[in-house]
Amino acid sequence: MLDHYIKTFRTGDIEAHKDSQREWVKDKGPVVETNIGYVESYVDPENSRAYWEGLVSIVDKEKSKKFGDLVKNSESIIPLLPWEKRMEKENFMAPDFTTLDVICFASNGCPAGINIPNFDDVRETEGFKNVYLDNAIGVPALSAM
Amino acid sequence: MGSYHAFGGNKFIPDLTKETFRTILTSNPLYTQTHTFYREVIEELYPQVETEIFAIDKPYNQIGFPEKGGVTSYFSTTMTDADLNLIKEFLDEQKISILLTRAFKESGGFTITVGSVESTGSKHVDFKGHRFNIEFGEFSSFLEECNSYLTQAKNYVANDT
User: Which chain B residues touch A44 with a CB distance below 8 Å?
Assistant: First the structure.
């Protein structure tokens, strides 16, 4: 993963960044979670050009277990919710879920969670990761700005 | 450009006057020493951005297409929809990802900058009657520093991925 990152930043070749993300999604449930590069494109008026972000975070094992249990039981909990069955997806697939505490999020804003990579061809074949950035939620005033 | 909300792209500015802000900046002890990086930033870079940091009138109040009254530093203020579409078409043809680029309109053509350490691959290409100048190596020094730390990080990885 690091070699692919180094290659993409050295040459500007986005294919190397895709390769880094292919390795990244394979690294399931690491204790230290990171990601870096030109990732999100929310700020470009055309929503095409990306801005830089670099993230270092650590897993909150206790909280991840609690949320993990909730997610594991979600398939039996969801039918109990007080709305009609047709409001839900036909087949609910319990997602992978990790709770992280951010040590550093070097970008123009810190989101409450991330779902990357954004490359559709990587998402479709290799998958993606869902992570919840727990300590970012405590500062909604800052992250919403 | 100043500071903008990440969601919605509205601008926010410091709640004090330019003069007060300058007083704060110049009261840092580093400012009184000569040849510090801090002094260089305040003396040379800050005057270039001061106006925009505090500008809250149009077009500075909103991130958006310059044609529609917004600001962006991803491409020139003179860029039209047609130009932007042409640039996308060109980058697709060149197999360069738009993610890492910025675009500038000049007389007779466009310059596309690509974020990378090396400037290998920079070239001129004629495309549909326009001259395109591709420049690799934008933000080179920052990316080089980043790569040096990524290289050091390789000593501490937990597994092969």
Answer: 72, 74
**B13, B64: one domain:** yes
Are B138 and B113 spatial neighbours (Cβ–Cβ below 8 Å)?
Answer: yes
* CATH code, domain with B102: 3.30.70.2600
Question: Out of B6, B9, B102, whose CB is closest to A49?
Answer: B102
- The reply to whether ipTM tops 0.90 is no
Domain ranges of chain A: 2-143
Residues of chain A contacting B9 with CB distance shorter than 8 Å = 43
Does one domain contain both B88 and B137? yes
Q: Best interface-test mutation with A: which of B10, B74, B104, B151 has the largest number of A CBs within 10 A?
A: B74
B150 falls within a domain: no
User: pLDDT by residue for chain A (145 residues), tens digit each?
Assistant: 999 999 999 999 999 999 999 999 998 888 999 999 999 998 999 999 999 999 999 988 888 888 888 888 888 888 888 988 888 777 666 666 788 999 999 988 788 888 899 998 898 888 888 888 888 876 555 544 4
Q: What b/e string do you get for B26-53 counting C-beta neighbours within 10 Å, with b at 16 or more? A: eeeeeeeeeeeeebeebeeeeeeeeeeb
Class of the CATH-defined domain A2-143: alpha beta
Interface membership of A44 toward B (CB under 8 Å): yes
